[in-house]
Amino acid sequence: MIRPHNLPKVSFAAVANLLNSKEPENDFTISGIAQDASDIQPGDIFVAIQGQKKHGIEFLDLAIKNGAIAIITDAKGENSKLPTIYVSNPRQIVGQVAAHIYQDPSANMFTVGITGTNGKTTVTTLLHQIWQSANWDSGLIGTVNTQINQEILPSLHTTPEASPLQALLATMSERHLRAVAMEVSSHSLAQYRVAGSRFKVSGFTNLTQDHLDYHGDMESYFKAKASLFNYGLTEMAVINIDDIYGARLAKMIEIPVSTISRVNDADWRYEEIIYIGKSTEVKIRGPQGILIEGTTKLIGDFNLDNLLMAVAIAVISGVDPIEIGSNLHKFTGAPGRLELVDIGQKFLAFVDYAHTPDAVTNVLKTARSLSKGKLIAVLGCGGDRDRSKRPLMGKAVLQAECPILTSDNPRSENPELILNEMLEGVVDSREKVEVIADRRQAIKRAIELAEDTDVVAILGKGHEIGQEIAGTKYPFDDRLVLAEAIAGLK
């Protein structure tokens, strides 16, 4: 866990006072906080939380060995080994305490949170690229990686847990970053991971079916996303009102709203969109007569939605619109999102992270616009995740003339059972679909089918560099496997 180097010590009594707890008889100073015992450093508070299988208090000895000097926990974590603050829900207050210990780092930067089912990674990546092109010191926190300017750090979650998130933000603040773009997942909101953060702007991209294994239904999923747009957490919202949930959100929240739309009247909108091969000429109109025009490498309606949101937030953050327009052609979006794989073949081939029915539909619609021939698509569904979307994913891939169903990350599930659930969505077109459980062989088959004017789309894993099967993660990068398959034709 990355941490800042120079922070003033905070007293344990101050933490107790923050949590309305009894002040300790003997006060002492705290240097940090961690909710994972292995992340504890000397002088830390250990937050012992109930996990899915075990309570954090079971790892107290490890935390003490690593230097923990106090504990925050619930009644299940009762102990006599260290000074302890008891609260009803320790997970709920970790972010608040961590932000206090690390001196409220998100408030010291122009911190942006982006939520939505699809587009979070692309919007945050574009924002970071825009800020970097303007010579701003900026950071990125998201699914693919974490960046401090050009330094790249690994990401374990779309949004980190509360204590490492605040430590990361404090490190960014210590390095004098001016702005930070962060992906905010629905899980992170439901689990209070961003509690204690302060967002200058939060953006809402869209909401389509995903994560119902966790949230239960679309209304609960929407409420989790909507919780980001409350006073005290976010100062201003930028919302895509082309999405039905976005239009609803814009009307119900009380913080100031700036709207974006590709097809409707909004604060930020497109005056002109001209598709030219693998690029797009655009004219973006904003408030007070702002006009940004240029050519972007981004293709597809959904990517134009992402670009519009990134541009709107960048201008709100203080970047000169003229500078954005002059650099528009440089911005590439995120790895594994409509990422072309070109080793000299005549047909087009790309990979994309699309792993929801809506994302598959949108990506294949874009692929169709690029194809003078047939569309070949390879798609799988992840194991131990929302099963209800699997038939819908199978149905969505039927947009391709040559759909191939395969494995994604089956995790602990039987790949054949996942494929059978996907096939429930293609009952009337079963003869059209090929099923090849081995992903490498499925990609190879797609390339065998490809002719000069075709488009090949490998969907579901995008930037990922591993495939998890029965508890083991094996090296697997769709981009490399696709390139190898193409090279095998020559």
Quick overview of this protein structure:
This protein has 490 residues and is α/β, with parallel strands linked by helices. The chain contains 16 helices and 25 strands.
Q: Note the gap between the termini.
A: 46 Å
Poorly predicted regions are: none
Coarse shape: globular
Count of the separate structural domains: 3
Counting helices, strands and paired strands, the structural category is: alpha/beta
Strand order of the largest sheet: 10-9-8-11-7-12-13-14-15-16-17
Largest sheet: 11 strands, mixed
Structure description:
- With 490 residues, this protein is of the alpha/beta class.
- It has 3 domains: 81 residues, Udp-n-acetylmuramoylalanyl-d-glutamate--2,6- Diaminopimelate Ligase, Chain: A, domain 1 (3-Layer(aba) Sandwich), CATH 3.40.1390; 226 residues, 3-Layer(aba) Sandwich (UDP-N-acetylmuramoyl-L-alanine:D-glutamate ligase); 149 residues, Protein-Tyrosine Phosphatase, Chain A.
- Helix content is 32%, strand content 22%.
- An 11-stranded mixed beta sheet has the order 10-9-8-11-7-12-13-14-15-16-17, with helices on both faces. Strands 18-19-23-20-21-22 form a 6-stranded mixed beta sheet, sandwiched between helices.
- Helix 2 links the parallel strand 4 and strand 5.
- Helix 3 runs parallel beside helix 5.
- It is globular and about 75 Å long.
